[in-house]
Amino acid sequence: MTDLYDCDLTPHNTFGIEARCKRYVAFDNVAEAQAMLPQLVESRERLLLLGGGSNLLLTGDFDGTVVHSQIKGMERHDDGAEYVLLRCGSGLVWDEVVAQCVAEGLYGAENLSLIPGEVGASAVQNIGAYGAEVKDLITTVEAIEMETGRIVQFTNAQCAYAYRQSRFKRDWKDRFFITHVTYRLCRTFVPHLDYGNIKAALAEKGIDTPTPIELRQVIIDIRNAKLPDPKVEGNAGSFFMNPIVERSKFEALKDLYPDMPHYIIDNERVKIPAGWMIEQCGWKGKALGRAGVHHKQALVLVNKGGAKSSDVLTLCHRIQGDVKAKFGIDIYPEVNIQ
């Protein structure tokens, strides 16, 4: 277990925002977390559950205790002839899990390659990319009830997953410390290529029917080509969620913007890329003080060097206002603002 006081949080958030916390506690196993979490809750200190810090904007020093999982390990169990259940510690790096799955012939997570963060956060955030969401892989989530230290287990249905949402972000927020997530992977590879520019990227490489390794690499190449490396330019990945609007709203906008990209959810709802709208508002590649919009992907806000959280929030609010004025659509941050 790691237990530090007056800890620097700069290396614990990929935005690179300078901040400190009163105390930082990281658990190596379930027993440690069970023993200490009720004590932390009883102390009435503010608590912040922190994963890899890749989906976080700190608004200042945290006057409380930051809690982190360092629980590792993978266990695989057969689930019939076709499927395998993979139980993963919440402190594992998500992309390392995807890489391990591909290496071992376990499929279904390829389109989620290179998404930053850890296993525990995948179950909170319902991470997704290129037409895939982790909710379609998760079977169970194991956690500790922080107030009592009791071990609990939730089914996929109980977590009430939706687009970038779960009960862990809403009514269960700060109630449970996730220790393990179990995913259901398939032994048969069925590539999903119909989202974004996957097919075009494969065609450039002369690939018609990709292997799992080739698909994973193409996803990685696409992400690396348009997303900044947080070690070079601080960021939290996609800052805004893509809005889902009613079909009537979409049709009205489509008349004004015939080339507007979109993804049909069902007969009544359509998803419109927030990055496209931000770009149409002229923000792509622009900066406001020390915070800016990435020059290759308008969905990503970046730390141009020495940015404070106030710089990022001011930029966020300006972008929201411009998108609302131009399209009549509210866009909301995907990142956790603390």
From TrEMBL:
Single Gene Ontology BP annotation: cell division
Catalytic residues identified in the record: R164, S238 (proton donor), E334
Subcellular location: Cytoplasm
Name the record gives this protein: UDP-N-acetylenolpyruvoylglucosamine reductase
Assigned protein family: Belongs to the MurB family.
Pathway given in the UniProt record: Cell wall biogenesis; peptidoglycan biosynthesis
E.C. number: 1.3.1.98
Reported function: Cell wall formation.
Keyword match Transit peptide: no
Keyword set, alphabetical order: Cell cycle, Cell division, Cell shape, Cell wall biogenesis/degradation, Cytoplasm, FAD, Flavoprotein, NADP, Oxidoreductase, Peptidoglycan synthesis
Molecular functions per Gene Ontology: FAD binding; UDP-N-acetylmuramate dehydrogenase activity
Signal sequence residues: none
GO annotations of cellular component type: cytosol
InterPro entries: FAD-bd_PCMH, FAD-bd_PCMH-like_sf, FAD-bd_PCMH_sub1, FAD-bd_PCMH_sub2, MurB, MurB_C, MurB_C_sf, Oxid_FAD_bind_N
Listed cofactors: FAD
Catalytic activity: UDP-N-acetyl-alpha-D-muramate + NADP(+) = UDP-N-acetyl-3-O-(1-carboxyvinyl)-alpha-D-glucosamine + NADPH + H(+)
Organism the protein comes from: Hoylesella loescheii DSM 19665 = JCM 12249 = ATCC 15930
Domain FAD-binding PCMH-type: 17-188
Pfam families reported for this sequence: FAD_binding_4, MurB_C
Enzyme class: oxidoreductase
